[in-house]
Amino acid sequence: MTTDTMLGNRYEIRHRLGSGGMAHVYQAYDLNLQREVAVKILRERLVADDAFTARFLREARAAANLAHPNLVTVHDFGQDRGRYFLVMEAVHGSDLKTLLLREGSLSVERSLAIMRQVAAGIGYAHRAGLIHCDLKPHNILITEDQRVKVTDFGISRMIASIHPEEHADVVWGSPLYFSPEQARGAPPSPASDVYSLGVILFEMLAGQLPFQSTDAEELAHLHLNAPAPDIRSLRPEVPASVAFLLETMLAKEPARRYRNADQLGQILETIAPKPPVTEVSPALVEPLPAPPPASLHLDWTGIFLGLLAFIAVGGLIPLWLWVCLLYPSCPLSP
Questions:
Q1: pTM of the predicted model, to two decimals?
Q2: 95 φ/ψ angles, rounded to the nearest 5 degrees
Q3: For position 29, what pLDDT does the model report?
Q4: DSSP string covering 291-307, please?
Q5: How far, in Å, are 202, 230, 319 from residue 325 at the CA level?
Q6: Do 58 and 52 touch, CB atoms closer than 8 A?
Q7: Which of 201, 203, 165 lies closest to 181 in space, CA to CA?
Q8: C-alpha distances out from residue 3 to 7, 22, 38, 77, 81, Å
C-alpha cells in the first residue's frame, strides 16, 4: 500500500510497521479523531476465505470489548475495496522479540516483571472468555515507559465457541510457541496460552527457545514429546522457584499447567523478587540532637495552695468533734 492510501475515508496510511503471516501493519492517522493509530490489513489470500473472514470479524468484535492497560485497544474494524482492516491504538516502543535480539537474554527480575504484566492482560482476556492462541514475543509490545501491552488477537478463539471434540486440519499460530494440543490440532484452552507464555519466559531467561528446528513437523513433535531443558542448566542463577514455575507452565498435559493466566499471575506475585532495600551509610545519617537535660522547676504557687487546702481540711476535724460531743446521741460521747 502507498502512503496516500485512504481506508474508509478516514484512515490515512503513513508507512508500514511490519508484516506477519496473516496481515500487514501500518502506522496511520485517524482524520476524524486526529490521532495516530495502527492499522492491520488482512492479506488478500485470507480475504478470499469467507469462513476465515467471518471468524476474524467475530473475534475482532470480541477483542474490541477488551479494555485493559496491558492489552492493545481495538478502536475499529472495517472493509474497504475488498480490504479487511483492524484499527488499534498506536504504541510507541518496541516488541519483545526485537529486545531479545538486541540483548540476548534478560535478567530474572526484568523477565518476571514483563511476564507479570503479560499475565495480567491475558488473564483479563481469559475472564472475558477469549483465548489468544498466538502468543509470542512479536505480539508483546513494550512502551517507552516500560508498559507491556499484548496485541494481535487475530486468530483468538472465544471459549464459548470451542467444542471439546473438534479437530483442526490446519493449525494456526507459530510452531515455535504454540502448545502441544495446538500442535496436534486439538481445541485450545486458556492453559494453551499459559504454555506459550512458558516458552516466552524460557526465551527471556535463556536467550534461546526450549525447542528449535527449521521444520514445522519436527517442532510439533518436540512440543508433543520432548521435555523442555532445565533452565538452571543454561542459567544457574535462576531461582528454584522460577525453574519450577517454568516446568509447570511447559507441562505437556494442559491439566498439569496453571489453569489460566490469572492463576499464573497469582503465582508470579509470590515469587517475584522484591525491590532491594536501600541501605544508608551511617556516615551520611545526621545524628539527632540530644534532648536537653531535665531541669528542676518548682511551682511555688501550687505548693502554697495545696498547703492551704490541707490546713483548711485539717482544721475542720476538731470542729466536727467538738460539735458532736455537745449532743448526747453523739457516738463519741462517754
A1: 0.76
A2: -90, 160
A3: 95
A4: PPPP-----HHHHHHHH
A5: 104, 105, 10
A6: no
A7: 165
A8: 11, 21, 14, 20, 16
* Burial readout 232-267 (b: 16 or more C-beta within 10 A, e: otherwise): eeebeebeeebbebbbebbbbebeebbebbbbbbeb
Inter-residue contact 143 to 133 (CB < 8 Å): no
Helices (H), 134-239: 180-183, 190-206, 216-225, 231-234
Cell of 133: 492462541
CATH of 93-271, one of 1.10.510.10, 1.10.10.10, 1.10.357.10, 3.20.20.70: 1.10.510.10
Residue 142 three-state SS: strand
Distances (CA, A) of 153 to 49, 122, 136: 18, 11, 12
Reported as a single tens digit per residue, the pLDDT across 200-234 is 999 999 999 999 998 888 999 999 999 999 999 99
Least confident residue range of 166-170, 263-267, 272-276, 299-303? 272-276
Residue 152 falls in the annotated catalytic set: no
Active-site residue identified among 134, 145, 193, 230: 134
The residues that bridge with 24 in the sheet, in sequence order, are 19, 41
Using alpha carbons, list the distances in angstroms from residue 237 to 126, 243, 287: 32, 10, 40
Say if domain 6-89 classifies as CATH 3.30.200.20. yes
Which residue is listed with cell 523477565?
Answer: 111
Strands 83-89 and 74-80: antiparallel
Do 191 and 258 touch, CB atoms closer than 8 A?
A: yes
